[in-house]
Amino acid sequence: MSSSRPRRIALISVHTSPLAQPGTGDAGGMNVYVWQTAQCLARRGVKVEIFTRATSSADAPTVAAADGITVRHIVAGPFEGLDKRDLPAQLCAFTAGVLRAEAMQRPGYYDLIHSHYWLSGQVGWLARERWGVPLVHTAHTLAAVKNAALAKGDAAEPRLRVIGEQQVVAEADRLVANTDTERNELITMYDADPGRIDIVTPGADLDCYTPGSRSDARAELGLPEEASIVTFVGRIQPLKAPDVLLSAAAPLIERQRATGRRPVHVLIVGGPSGSGLDRPTALIDLAAELGISDAVTFLPPQPATRLAQVYRSSDLVAVPSYSESFGLVAIEAQACGVPVLAAHVGGLGVAVADGRSGMLVDGHLIGDWTTALEKMLSSPGQLNAMGRRAREHAEQFSWEHTTDALLASYARAMDSFAGNRVPAVGVTPLVRATRRWGRRRARM
Ligand code: UDP
């Protein structure tokens, strides 16, 4: 095994800062991923510098965020109010800021670049060429995958993004995929070279997310003591399908009411993001239309320690997403000893052990989700057993484990790059990808 290890890495996260509160706007699992792995890398002696776009005039150019971790805020476009869709036009400004920051350092300052999401991959691609160091890229989500499973009324990702992703896939030295499913998507939808893909499963903070007293958690959050609580955690957007959960829970709530049995309560935690369903009031309106407003609690995005209490207060956590490259919420809930009911899409098939730590549902038919909810909630003994197995299942997914695999990927990138320093000429992977793209367009 190779022992190549970077001393200092440039980690690029253009569109969202690891210092932002996840669960609303553009901040979600990627922020948690970047921050958690940066901390693990720093503890192992790798210096991490994170480049992100300044989104406030109060953002200092550099912030010593933790031991061994510096966040560099790059000015590229207006601080506030710039939509993610407008970011491609700011990539030149952002890249100029990244190159300038490096130029102020001694030569060979960074040993490796790790880019997160395609916008950062574009920046990393150019930095790789300028600095002569390898680029490792993690997509986090892929437009072609998302477009193949769009929620009703959700806007398709633009072709511009698919092209941009394809370029990064062709140019990166290594690609990090969350699961085997994502690896296959990269190969079949983006023509990725299978030999350059590493599967690195994400993790959860297993010290923060632990089982605990359900009644204490409910008392702290002001939730009903005598109810079955089904929880949704994440950004309120069509892709995450919180509306499917509300619609599926409604008949169950009605039935329990009519029969006087243990009530069902839905807890929704997170803020708006994206377009469509994400009007802050859209879900509140839906609950009112369904006649279940009194059985639904909405909470704004919560920091991790309080989110752990959210999970502990729940009988069940639902992840009904249309597409999910992994689904950190599913692992965090299980780490708290709570079973998960999830859509059988993307990485959720790995994140949830079907029938053991939770259940997977095919498709998004409301009736199927009502049946699945009822099945799980109606047998408390089985739910408790699943909860115990859920913690065991989650223990396989730690950020330390993720970091071991990332370091192995970095070593591969450094070794292959060392043997291939001169930029390729002629029919490069990029030329091949571009030709294929042209052929596809011609057939459209
Ligand atoms: N999250 C949070 N507070 C909230 C809601 C979500 O900290 O109120 C975090 C959550 O802990 C998880 C992340 O946001 O780590 C969401 O990640 P996931 O992979 O489930 O979804 P993504 O945002 O990547 O689509």
UniProtKB/TrEMBL annotation:
1D-myo-inositol 3-phosphate binds at residues 15, 26-31, 84, 117, 141, 161. InterPro entries: Glyco_trans_1, Glyco_trans_4-like_N, Glycosyltransferase_grp1, Mycothiol_biosynthesis_MshA. The keyword Phosphoprotein does not apply. Keywords: Glycosyltransferase, Magnesium, Metal-binding, Transferase. Residues 214-392 form the Glycosyl transferase family domain. One of its GO terms (biological process) is liposaccharide metabolic process. It is an enzyme of class 2 (transferase). Homodimer. NCBIfam families: mycothiol_MshA (TIGR03449). Belongs to the glycosyltransferase group 1 family. MshA subfamily. This is D-inositol-3-phosphate glycosyltransferase. It comes from Gordonia oryzae. The lineage of its organism: Bacteria, Bacillati, Actinomycetota, Actinomycetes, Mycobacteriales.
